[in-house]
Amino acid sequence: MPDGSQLLVRGAVFIVLGELCFASMGVGIRLVSTELDNTMIVFARNLLGLLLLLPWLAHRGVGTLATAVPGLHLLRAGAGVAAMYCFFYAIAAMPLAEAMLLKLTAPIFMPLIAVLWLHERVTPTLALALGIGFAGVAVILDPGVTGSGISVSPVALIGLMGGVLAALAKVTVRRLSRTEPPTRIVFYFALIAAAISAVPLTWSWQTPSWPAAAGLVAIAVAATLGQLALTRGLSLAPASRMGVFGYSAVVFGAAYGWLLWDEPLTLTTITGTLLIAAAGLLATRARTRSRRRPLPTPTRAVPPGQR
Predict the structure, then answer these.
(1) Where are the alpha helices (DSSP H) in 118-266?
(2) How many CB atoms lie within 10 A of CB 197?
(3) Predicted pLDDT of residue 212
(4) How far apart are alpha carbons 220 and 45 in whole angstroms?
(5) pTM of the model
(6) What 3-state DSSP class applies to 61?
(7) Is 152 helix (H, G, I), strand (E, B) or coil?
């Protein structure tokens, strides 16, 4: 059986591979967005993602679909789909590295939502993490001063809103996990997300060309592989030890942006990445320590379908 250090290395490899898949998904979104509207891309990602996840769900067994908390499933799916709209729009309209970084701001907002909703305690470490995180967000938003006041890029604000919505979705998953098995959470998210994202197509349907259709399939495959890789990585080692590797998405995004679109890696992006990564790690470890104080309880495996 592998020792602790080997598990950490294997977990880190899976996390990095997962983030490479998500950065590759971003490339696909950027390319396909030149032909298709954001609503088409989000719908295709959800529908194809559902089809790709069906074998996993069949293997694990969904069991009974009866749930006592349908409203929470609807909230989780609604927040997750809204986050996708925000992220996909940001990926198509701003430097890829910065878009990937704004996607990773969710750990900063999760404690705030958990405090207000789940009544979790704010520790000094967590308060420090929030301060550092919001400083990193301010660096990335890079607000300018004009004659009418402070101005911020609307695209960056949309990307940041995606981080807030993703945080809400993840906190909802935490709440759902008290009573719902992982496969049921994944099933309802995939089903409801596909249904929600189908609604805008009643007025915005576009028939994709064959290259665009292939791109949509590639986006869904990359996203699903990324989900499975992250799930595997987090099952091998604690999230508090693996969190830093999640920020490799920014590195991959910067590399893709430079190679494909000649996007420079700016000092602003580097500084914001370091601050937000430090805040995310502090916040994760603060939550981990707070959970160790009570008597230990069994934890559920993190299911795919969280992005």
Answers:
(1) 124-141, 154-176, 182-198, 201-204, 210-236, 239-242, 248-261
(2) 22
(3) 95
(4) 5
(5) 0.83
(6) coil
(7) coil
